[in-house]
Structures are given as structure tokens and as C-alpha cells.
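EI: anyone free to look at a 230-residue chain?
SC: sure, send it
EI:
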Amino acid sequence: MTSRDGVLISPSIIATDLSTLGTAVSSFDPGTVDLLHVDVMDGHFVPNLTIGPGYIDCLKTHTDIPLDVHLMIDNPDSAAAAYIERKPWCVTFHCESTRFPVRLLRSAAEAGIKPGLSINPATPVDTLYDLAPYCGLILVMSVEPGFYGQAFLDHSLRRIEKLREFLEQNGLGEHCLIQVDGGINERNIASVVMAGARIVVAGSAAFTGGDINKNVARLKKSAMERPAQG
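SC: here you go
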């Protein structure tokens, strides 16, 4: 599988009404919607505050779509276990907020969960090179974390390319998937996938208008098109 084949779309639930998601998610087609991206924010690592393990427990009772849990929190070293216990598809935490990344990555992997590590737009990509062998997923933030509705940062494309090149050169291209989150829509998704993304988080592009299945299908179609020039 190349970086332009089989792209997974992970709609970010923060872009919709969390109070009614349990009802709405029953209409999401698991054959179209690959994952559900769950942003956990603690009001410290990022200014906003969202949900916790209890909400995840409730959400799992309403859908079989795998959960893609993104911990935007301080001190995930002490909090991650509660999310790993929920058995999502993956748990991703930020390299900027942990002192023991290898220990956390191994804990997730030992639980049968894809271990993920995320980097903010100002963090050099090569910060993760030594940690990549322990990762099943690296999440490249293409906006500043914690604020919904931001525009895609164009310099993210080179960061994705640089990471993809490193993973391929070191035989990690299939083991460690690149996920990208922030400001992605039908106009720029092809460039993001061409750069190396295998999993794309979509917020408003997935939920605007209310028909998530059609929106995600359009995103997947756009992902396979030739990127716009200029």
C-alpha cells in the first residue's frame, strides 16, 4: 500500500454536537467512516476542556466504529492508562507533554492498541526519529492544538514529507502510519495524502451539512485526485 492508497478518514467529533452524538452516530456507515477521532482536552495543555473516559465508555455503546483517541493533556504518563483500558483503536499523546514516551507507547502496544505520538507545528519532526520504532502512528498537527476551525498551516506539507521519507528510509513506512489533523478539506486533502498521510482527521469537512457519510466519501474521492497546483 502506498501513501495514496487506502487513506483512512477519521472525523473529529469535536466538530459536532457532543450531547447528541450517541444518537447521531448510529447513522454513520462503518463502511465509509473508518475511525472516530476523539479529542481529549484538559484545559491545561490546551486551553479548552472536552471529555474524559466516561464519555468514551458511553460512545462505545452506540457504535462499532473504532475510536481514535487523541490526548491533548498534561502529564499523560499518569492519565493514559484510563484511556488504554477503554480499548480504543489507538491512543495518541503529545511528545511535548510526556517525560516517558517509550513507556507509554509500550503500554499501549502491550494492550493491543496502536500506540501514537503527536507533534505540534513548532516541534521539529526529527524530535521523533528515535521514538518512531515504538510508534504505530505519528500524528502531525497541521494547526495549533486545542482550537477548532483553524486554517491548515502550509508548512505542514514539508513536515509530512520529511517524516514519510525518514520512515521509508528506515523500513518503518508500513509499521508507523502518518496521521494529519487540522484544517483539512476537499481542496487540500490530495496534497496532504501525496505528502505521506495515511490517516486524515476531518472536522467541519466531515460534519458540515449533517450528512457525514456523503462528506467522508467526497473527501476520499478528493484524496485520490491530483493535487491542485499553485
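EI: The chain has a mean pLDDT of 93.
SC: 👍
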